[in-house]
Design a protein that fits this description.
Calcium-transporting ATPase, cytoplasmic transduction domain A; Rossmann fold; 26 helices; 26 strands; about 20% strand
Length: about 750
């Protein structure tokens, strides 16, 4: 084996409708030589694994999955429909193998063309024929037809049972169904055996329907991006596939059109509805230089955009990918249920065996009666409903959150977020607008224009919000900064550059203090400005202080409401900032929360760890300089409208840059865990009820089948309720979105 040959592979697997289906696929491929790191996303229908093709080829992986009755194909190709015991004709299989690779996502074929659909139609037809024969000819002949119907209908189920048994999973619903159907024939209950197999097929169809509804939320996200685009080539405009757009091309977006790619406006002025992407209900005004996301809707006038991301990497594609990948990050509750279910089925099978043979051997009871009850118990032994209870809720929550601009990376994050009782906020760009303005320029040595020009020269090229504020003020006053070189930035402290052979620094007053250039007068003036809630930076060289610049970043309009609502939920809020104590106190007082000031990035980590000793802590920050604190918290959430950092750095992201979405995230997480508890109660409760009634002889085989499949359908439908989750804050808050926060810490 060579490192070059081992690769991460991905397939689309069709026909997986419950957690036990995913477990079968995992068991079938895990034991293959050269296979490692197997991950299955049930709702996204994805199989990911690391494969050494020198030991196991991709074709062998596909054969192992198809042997279980599931369809499989590489991610770039259409998956062969799940056969579930029905072999595709050679011509159809060949056509599927040679079909061109389509760009749009593959859609599930009509139900009557799937293996499960064919099984349902076949068993229903044979059952109807048997009942018709009974009416016309009589019971004796009808019983033979019922036997034939049972044997024919159970044959594909038995093949799947044998395949999964060979894969190391003898206790499956297919195996239990096969034993129950054949056992019913053995004791002379032919009609009920045929009915049981038919109801099993109906239940599988209902499971497929419910799982399909759960997947529709993820598919709807992918459908937001239009299939075609209007490419501008010189003076011509021609229609092309949106998937073929490349970076740098210019596209036309007419009023009412969906934006076909992430891009920057080069011509035009129009309001754009970004609600499909971020959930923001208020249209955003876009002009030359503004960023626009794929899937947004142009509301007013024509825009021309320069494409900045390929189709596979646009905002919608990354959100879909994040939601799909999040499925594989299983919650602790899901892992516990998986372990529990491995013992649950063998225990029920053992109980069924004791029920079947115990009373006849020990109490001389009727064999036929107790074998029948034992067979009915077998059908209650499948933990499908229990296994699907968590992933169905998680998938629905991830989809619902993504539609509202709230992203969470998997079930583990959701479960942890549901227990959060303390939220730590960064200040700049999180609780504040992230766009400070210069309010005061204090010249200590020279004129104010010299102070501004020097500071602008040092900050030229910086994306820091304070640097941008200084550059904006210089541009507004017509001040042209002198050329600079050898620029250096120190996160949380300041920046410096060389001007005319002298290194000038723009940074915290404490840096000037350390350099020995901060006079008593300057120190007093800086304290006065800081007492007004302003951020003060000093402009100095090693031998002199040129002046002070005071800036202020106003709190977001919804920040106080968010903190108030968190308090109503029993969640404590605290602000962690690198700004000085006076500025921090002024901002914290406006919003109404506790604060810690003068913190370097490593100090924030220490504060998070200190809070974590008594609370479960969520950190909300900008995603770059706050990365250490985001990682130190139990849950790290990044602010940002679709930025790489917001989508990929933290455990979650708030695409709309709203502090109130922190409340929405916590409420969604708590609603999800409540839904999971309901699902577990439904799954175990129904099993327990029918286990008791079956042993007592109140319910029989066909009721046992309904208990199994019905519980799975109920659990899935209950999970689907989360797709309609919409936080009251998200639904009612009508704030115009603030400018996208710059991703850096304040200089001070």
């Amino acid at each position: 084996m060579t490192e070059q040959s081992v690769k991460r592979r991905e397939w689309r697997v069709t026909g997986m409708d419950c957690g036990s289906c995913a477990a079968k696929v995992r068991a079938a491929v895990t034991d293959l030589p050269g296979v490692a790191d197997v991950e299955i996303a049930l709702m996204a229908e994805r199989l990911h694994l690391t494969l050494d093709p020198d030991r196991t080829t991709p074709a062998q992986v596909e054969r192992a999955v198809r042997a279980l009755g599931f369809g499989i194909g590489p991610e770039t190709e259409p998956a062969q429909p799940a056969a579930h015991g029905f072999v595709l004709p050679n011509a159809v299989a060949a056509a599927a193998a040679t079909a061109p690779q389509p760009a749009p996502p593959q859609r599930t074929p009509p139900w009557y063309r799937t293996g499960k659909g064919k099984l349902l139609i076949l068993t229903g037809a044979m059952l109807a024929v048997a009942w018709a024969v009974r009416l016309i000819v009589g019971s004796a002949v009808a019983d033979l037809v019922f036997v034939a119907a049972t044997l024919i209908a159970v044959a594909p189920v038995a093949r799947r049972a044998i395949a999964t048994a060979r894969a190391g999973m003898p206790f499956t619903i297919e195996m239990l169904m096969t034993i129950a159907a054949l056992g019913a024939l053995f004791i002379g209950a032919a009609e009920e055996a045929a009915l049981v197999v038919f109801l099993f097929a109906v239940g599988e169809r209902l499971e497929s329907l419910a799982a399909g509804k759960a997947r529709d939320g993820i598919r709807a996200l992918a459908d937001l991006v239009p299939r075609s685009a209007r490419l501008v080539v010189g003076d011509e405009i021609r229609a092309v596939d949106a998937a073929d757009l490349t970076i740098g091309q210019v596209v036309q977006v007419r009023p009412g059109d969906r934006v076909p790619a992430d891009g920057v406006v080069v011509v035009g002025l129009s309001e754009v509805d970004e609600s499909p992407v971020t959930g923001e209900s208020v249209p955003s005004l876009k002009r030359s230089g503004s960023t626009v996301y794929a899937g947004s809707i142009n509301a007013q006038a024509e825009l021309r955009l320069r494409v900045t991301r390929a189709a596979a990497d646009n905002t919608i594609a990354r959100i879909v990918r994040l939601v799909e990948e999040a499925e594989t990050a299983r919650a602790p509750t899901e892992r516990f249920i998986d372990r529990f279910s491995r013992h649950y089925m063998p225990a029920v099978v053992t109980l069924a065996l004791l029920v079947a043979v115990g009373p006849p051997l020990l109490a001389d009871a009727a064999w036929q009666v107790w074998i029948y009850r034992g067979l009915a118990l077998l059908l209650i032994g499948c933990p499908c409903a229990l296994v699907i209870s968590v992933p169905a809720s998680i998938a629905s929550a991830l989809s619902a959150g993504a539609r509202q601009g709230v992203l969470m990376k998997g079930g583990a994050v959701i479960e942890t977020a549901a227990a959060i009782d303390c939220v730590a906020f960064d200040k700049t760009g999180t609780l504040t607008q992230g766009r400070p303005d210069v309010l005061d320029i204090v010249a200590i040595d020279g004129r104010s224009t010299t102070v501004l020009a020097t500071a602008a020269a040092v900050e030229t090229g910086s994306s820091h919000p304070l640097a941008q504020a200084i550059l904006r003020r210089a541009a507004a006053e017509g001040v042209v900064p002198p050329p600079s070189s050898a620029a250096v930035a120190t996160p949380g402290l300041g920046a410096s550059a060389v001007l005319n052979g002298i290194r000038w620094t723009v940074g915290a007053p404490r840096l000037a203090e350390a350099a020995g250039v901060l006079s008593d007068c300057a120190r007093s003036r800086a304290a006065q400005l800081q007492a007004q809630g302003k951020t003060v930076v000093a402009v100095f060289a090693p031998d002199r202080l040129l002046g002070l610049i005071a800036l202020r970043d106003e709190p977001r309009p919804e920040a106080a409401e968010a903190v108030s609502r968190l308090a109503a939920m029993g969640v404590q809020s605290v602000m962690l900032t690198g700004d000085n104590a006076s500025t921090a106190a002024a901002v914290a007082g406006q919003i109404g929360l506790d604060h810690r000031a003068d913190l370097l990035p490593e100090d924030k980590v220490a504060e998070i760890r200190d809070l974590a000793r008594l609370s479960r802590v969520m950190m909300v920050g900008d995603g770059i300089n706050d990365a250490p604190a985001l990682a130190a918290a139990q849950v790290g959430v990044a602010m940002g409208s679709g930025t790489d950092v917001a989508l990929e750095t933290a455990d979650g992201a708030l695409l709309r840059n709203r502090v109130t979405d922190v409340v929405a995230l916590l409420r969604l997480a708590r609603a999800t865990m409540s839904n999971i508890r309901q699902n577990v109660a439904i799954a175990l409760g129904l099993k327990l009820v029918f286990l008791v009634t079956t042993v007592l002889g109140v319910t029989g085989l066909w009721i046992a089948v309904l208990a199994d499949t019905g519980a799975t359908v109920l659990v899935t439908l209950n999970a689907l309720r989360l797709l309609g989750f919409r936080d009251r804050i998200s639904a009612t808050t009508n704030l115009r979105p603030a400018a996208t926060a710059a991703t850096s810490e304040p200089l001070t």
